[in-house]
Write a sequence for this structure.
């Protein structure tokens, strides 16, 4: 996949950093302001897609990007199920929130029990999955083009 | 709520453009216009969570459409510009079905509570107890991750399946093992 | 009520594109239109006049919120719609690679 001109590359380098930071902010404040894991995850994916579109890609870097995104997506999924299974450790039901996690003072950043780690896991999973889908649809040489 | 009706008219006009136009990139951009109208309507309906997700998902949908269109073809070769007589019959049948469906739907929608005053039997319990039981200030996040966590688990599974499906469909098939088969099928 | 009927009209427009059109990309656009219409229908059902968005900003505020349950259901449905559209686009790309056209009447005739 070919890259774009120099102007687009300079602006994309600035914008991708700001998009990534804004996505992480939306994921981390998911229990206080609107947003949450899904919106922040898609924004993180948009930052990586912008970099891939502006700079083009060669076959070697495509393969390593595939590997990275599959590993991160599986890590996010396993982390989400692991957080839910921690309810069994205390001896109670699946997805328990009261005595397992830290339910702090409301309206502070470290509050809400399971919601903050679950948002982070969902954000990583959705972001990595969408990057993998875009690399397969738009940038792969796996589909032969005559 | 006059802005709601103006946005509904814009949405329906953009949808009609998206399915009738000949250039496929123009159809993808019209689909983006439909999605952005839906996002602004979510803001007017006091749902900021949904508006954020709809805007970013709509942008990525248009990017995916453009990526596939630019790799394949750009124009729709089935629209010839002349009047084709074999298209009249399906259109008329679908028009009759559409009118019947709308009449039945209008009589069913009269049974719902009036627009602007929902019943909220379960939701009043969630709103009253969310801050005390979960500690989260965003009631929607508390619902999708604490009260209804199974739905989020199901959604994570569906997303994983979709990613695996796309990577399987796009992958090159194993052609190195049987060269005589490849010569026969091409 | 008019807004709910407009959502149903959008579903019918999407269904018309899926049933009648002969180009594979137009069929995918029709599916996508149906998903947007159903999500909008859910959000319209949960609206309450003169209420606030369901975010608690002050611990002692009056809890006059819109219905949060339809919003929670639609939130995951939007992302699942994106995944389904991506899957259909991958299938469309494979169809073009094999038959070199998007026209379904020609694909039925070739029988590769």
């Amino acid at each position: 996949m070919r890259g774009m001109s120099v102007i687009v590359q300079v602006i994309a380098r600035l914008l991708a950093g700001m998009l990534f930071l804004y996505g992480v902010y939306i994921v981390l404040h998911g229990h206080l302001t609107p947003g949450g894991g899904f919106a922040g995850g898609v924004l993180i994916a948009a930052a990586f897609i912008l970099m891939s579109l502006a700079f083009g890609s060669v076959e070697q870097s495509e393969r390593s990007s595939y590997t990275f995104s599959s590993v991160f997506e599986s890590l996010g999924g396993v982390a989400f199920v692991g957080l839910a299974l921690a309810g069994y450790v205390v001896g109670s039901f699946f997805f328990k929130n009261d005595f397992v996690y830290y339910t702090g003072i409301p309206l502070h950043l470290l509050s809400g029990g399971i919601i903050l780690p679950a948002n982070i896991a969902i954000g990583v999973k959705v972001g990595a999955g969408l990057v993998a889908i875009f690399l397969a649809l738009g940038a792969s040489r796996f589909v032969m083009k005559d | 709520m006059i802005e709601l009706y103006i946005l509904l008219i814009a949405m329906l006009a953009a949808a009609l453009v998206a399915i009738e136009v000949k250039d496929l990139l123009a159809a993808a951009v019209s689909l983006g216009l439909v999605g952005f109208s839906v996002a602004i309507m979510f803001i007017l309906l006091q749902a900021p969570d949904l508006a954020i997700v709809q805007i970013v998902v709509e942008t990525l949908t248009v990017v995916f459409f453009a990526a596939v269109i630019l790799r394949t073809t750009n124009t729709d070769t089935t629209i010839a510009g002349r009047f084709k007589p074999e298209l009249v019959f399906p259109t008329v049948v679908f028009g009759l079905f559409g009118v019947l469906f709308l009449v039945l739907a209008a009589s069913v929608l009269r049974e719902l509570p009036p627009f602007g005053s929902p019943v909220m039997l379960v939701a009043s319990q969630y709103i009253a107890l969310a801050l005390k039981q979960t500690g989260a200030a965003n009631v929607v996040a508390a619902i999708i991750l604490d009260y209804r966590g199974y739905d989020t688990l199901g959604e994570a599974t569906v997303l994983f399946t979709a990613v695996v499906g796309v990577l399987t469909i796009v992958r090159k098939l194993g052609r190195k093992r049987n060269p005589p088969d490849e010569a026969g099928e091409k | 009520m008019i807004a709910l009927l407009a959502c149903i009209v959008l579903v019918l427009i999407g269904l018309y594109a899926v049933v009648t059109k002969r180009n594979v990309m137009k069929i995918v656009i029709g599916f996508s239109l149906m998903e947007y219409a159903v999500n909008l229908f859910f959000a319209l059902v949960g609206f309450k006049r003169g209420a606030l968005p369901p975010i608690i900003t002050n611990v002692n505020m009056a809890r006059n919120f819109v219905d949060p349950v339809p919003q929670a259901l639609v939130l995951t449905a939007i992302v699942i719609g994106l995944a389904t559209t991506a899957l259909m686009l991958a299938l469309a790309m494979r169809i073009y690679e094999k038959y070199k056209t998007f026209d379904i009447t020609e694909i039925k005739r070739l029988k590769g």
